[in-house]
Design brief:
This protein is of the alpha+beta class. Helices cover 15% and strands 38% of the residues. It has one domain: Beta Barrel (OB fold (Dihydrolipoamide Acetyltransferase, E2P)), CATH 2.40.50.140. It has 4 helices and 11 strands. Strands 1, 2, 3, 4, 5, 6, 7, 8, 9, 10 and 11 form an 11-stranded mixed beta sheet that branches.
């Protein structure tokens, strides 16, 4: 029996930030006009190898273990839609560009690069990457306000500072560090759902932590090499056996 809107809470490895709107929410646009809804958001750009280094809480070991993101998402989708072939289902869903896998949250950077370059934009930093658009809505469907994502920054090997959204100096610092090209990691809730008959696995941003500065996006040099986020490795994989149905 299908589990309605099942979810998974994951900690990402380090990623590069693009188009961050984490201090002030960004309006949703439809046909070039604001819809009245807003969200905090950031485009997370991952090295391909980073997909093996997401972390999930595992009751069997009473701690966080490293897992492959695509495997976890395939398991989540199978829990939501057990009678469907997950790969076939998402491949049949086309986006506005005619690309398959509408509703699947992990996009190929090479596809995004080609789309942007077709519009005359520089997009070398997408080459060979995987991209996830993370967002946190500002209100419920009923209009009730939602808690914004927690924003913080690393201050030492084992220390960090959480920014207070009511303190102007904190927000000034947050604007400086949460900028395109810099690096961060995040806590994300992935939720499986259907909207107007279309399957989605939606990535909701719960919290994000700045880790280090990076080259501004759009520069002449290649994307910095991913250097990972330490800790949490384990031989135990609670999502083994799902590889045959992962949409690529």
């Amino acid at each position: 029996m299908a589990n309605k809107n099942p979810s998974r809470a994951l900690v990402t490895p380090e990623f590069r930030m693009s188009y961050p709107a984490l201090v002030t929410p960004k309006p949703f646009m439809e046909n070039g006009r604001p819809t009245g809804d807003e969200s905090y958001q950031v485009e997370a750009i991952f090295d391909e190898a980073a997909l093996d280094h997401f972390r999930i809480y595992d009751e069997a070991t009473n701690g966080y273990v490293e897992v492959n993101l695509l495997t976890v998402l395939a398991q989540l989708a199978k829990e939501a839609w057990p009678s469907d072939n997950i790969k076939t289902m998402f491949e049949s869903q086309k986006d506005k560009h005619g690309q398959p896998n509408k509703g699947w949250p992990v996009k190929r950077g090479d596809v995004i690069k080609a789309q942007k370059e077709a519009k005359g934009k520089q997009a070398d930093h997408y080459a060979g990457t995987r991209v996830i658009a993370l967002n946190a809505k500002t209100k419920t469907k009923a209009g009730e306000p939602l808690q914004p994502p927690t924003i913080s920054m690393v201050t030492g090997d084992k220390t960090f500072k959480t920014f207070d959204r009511l303190v102007d100096t904190d927000m000034a610092k947050a604007r400086a560090v949460f900028s395109g090209g810099n690096y961060a990691f995040a806590t994300v809730g992935f939720v499986a759902m259907k909207v107007a008959g279309v399957a989605f696995i939606a990535p909701y941003l719960n919290g994000i932590r700045y880790t280090r500065s990076g080259k501004s996006l759009g520069g002449q040099s290649d994307m910095d090499r991913f250097d990972g986020y330490t800790g949490g490795a384990s031989d135990h994989n609670p999502t083994a056996g799902m590889n045959d149905e992962i949409p690529f």
